[in-house]
Amino acid sequence: MSQFDINSATQEPDLATAMKVVYQWNYGSEVEELRHLYVKALEAQWIAERDLDWEGPIDQIALAATPLGIGFPVEQTSYWRSLSADTVWELKKRMASFRLSNFLHGEQGALMVAAQLVNAVPHTDAKFYAATQTMDEARHVEVFARYIQKLDMVRPIAPNLKGLLDSTLATGDWIKKLVGMQIVVEGLALYSFREMRNFTEEPLLKEILTYVGRDEARHHAYGVQYVERCVPCLSAAEREELEDFAFDAAVAIIGGRNQAGFMAALLQSWAEAGIDTAELLACAQRERDQLTRAPRPGRRRGPVSGFVLPTLRRCGLLSQRVAGRFHGVLQENLGSQVVGSSVEEFMQWIPDLPEDTAAWLLGELE
Ligand SMILES: [Fe+2]
Ligand SMILES: [Fe+2]
């Protein structure tokens, strides 16, 4: 048995938050759709130990065959094709633990934000729902930690994700917490879970992502239904402030994939697997023209354009003012081919949210 201590080196205890707690003396339902969602969440509870098969080893062949999904077909380079099966496995294992560790840390952030929402949201239905989400997130932390333990080791959190979780936890404004967590972080999570779930044939990982994804679809629905109800009650200044908060949160994600720290950590983990990363990058550069095809204009691309922006628009938080700012940043990162050459075109290309997010996540919709 490990030694028990109140304080340990793995804790990071100093984040100050400005949250205010709201009592609600009306115990009746004021936001009926949230009451329904709460009942749905109660019915959908599951138990990781009982409902998932943890017994067997991880299917290494299936996991090694899971595409990296880093936005560039690095697996088609001649350098990659020259690697031994063992090296490919080592690399895929590290890459998976890198991604799953960030899912895991994000889940811890979600667990703490959901618990804060129980205190801070002003409606009883919303407090009830946040209580079920808190339980869901604890389970998500549990399953990702357990899977990573079987696979490899927990890697540190990406700095941009940490920054986003910090600002969502620290804000005193509960609507900002909803926007930061339910719309931006969970929008990113839904998109990433869907991608990984549909790419992988590793049975336990696929099962975990199916269970977790269904819960996340509900968490996102909570954000949409609640924020959509509240936005029309805000003053113009409050709405602008909320739009700006969403913008900063989403930009943290867009920037994150290109951040020097993130790439350095990723390449470091590849080098540990025995890869000559300089040669891999040089080879990818040499063969770039054969490997990349021009993206189709307006194609769904990435979590922000593909999911966060449709959600913000649905909630009434994508005014012309902030859309112009989004277009500027995305154009710089992805190019006009992907996001349109004008704000009007950009707005036209933003897809609608899927009618059924859970079905979309499970690949049952386009
Ligand atoms: Fe979660
Ligand atoms: Fe969640």
Sequence-ordered SSE layout with sheet pairings:
Elements: H1 32-43, H2 48-51, H3 60-64, H4 78-81, H5 85-120, H6 124-151, H7 159-170, H8 174-199, H9 203-230, H10 236-256, H11 260-272, H12 277-286, H13 288-291, H14 302-314, H15 320-334, H16 336-339, H17 343-349, H18 357-361
The chain binds fe (ii) ion (2 copies).
The site of one fe (ii) ion (FE2) has 5 residues, from α5 and α6.
Give a verbal description of the structure.
With 366 residues, the protein is mainly α. The chain is built from 18 helices and no strands. Helix 5 (85-120) packs parallel to helix 7 (159-170), helix 5 packs across helix 11 and helix 8 packs across helix 14 (302-314). The radius of gyration is 21 Å and the shape is globular. It starts with 31 loop residues before the first helix and ends in a 5-residue tail after the last helix. The mean pLDDT is 91. One fe (ii) ion (FE2) is lined by residues 110, 137, 186, 216, 219. One fe (ii) ion (FE2) is lined by residues 107, 110, 137, 140, 216.
